[in-house]
Amino acid sequence: MFDLVTSGQTQVLGDQIGTGFVDFFDTLKPAANIFTDVSGNPITGITVVGPPPVIPPPPAHLTLAPATGTDPVGAKHTVTATVTDATAAPVPNTIVIFNAISGPNAGLLGGGITDVNGQAAFSYIGKGGTGTDSIQARIGTLESNIVQETWQQPTKCPQRQGFWKNNPNAWPVSSLVLGSQTYGKTKLLQILGAPGRGDASQILAVQLIAAKLNIALGSDPVPVSATIATADRLLSGFSGEVPLKVAPSSATGQSMTQSGANLGLYNSGQLTPSCTP
Length: 277
Prior knowledge:
Oligomer: single chain
CATH class of the largest domain: Mainly Beta
CATH superfamily of the largest domain: Immunoglobulins
């Protein structure tokens, strides 16, 4: 007979019941009256037979990591608690309670049991909107350091060059700089309407236009910022406007087509898996 402490607010260590979860945090605690007679009265005089149990050293230190994190709203964030004793040895098989003590997901609880390395992980989905959660772990009265997770508005998914060619009214800007040249909307649409044609500068420019329009509309620039810098540098090596009549087989042409291919991956959404349409 055991007393059980449960919670229905968490996403870990739970057995799914219907559409929710029930987590057992503090289990296998003997009830007040372990042995009773048929009338429910406690039975006294019971003694323990055998060697005394080996009691491991109690937890002395509890740390939580990583110290900070940043994710889009709706993504999953994981923190890991590390439990050690007074000699810095890991403490396994210990229940750790995790709590979002403030922020958009304040009140969220979770639990985990430490492994042989004294570690327990807790993951949750950021459903509370933008802002910064402060998260802390505890074992009884032993508390960890406080870590923070910042939730940001998800970035928009990039669009392929065909979208920008066919939807000029959706453009967030009316001009772009490609290399060292400024192009108006009319010229940019001409370039988008004639991709390739055996000219590496044209192949590159089509994808570069789409990438810069995507970023201007709110797509994440990080996965492609270095490629854009390379593309602008390659185009800046020539005077005049695209098309620059660069043979794809030349050294510069190969660099241009490779950069264009990388930009194409970005424009097709393959480098921004956490974006929203």
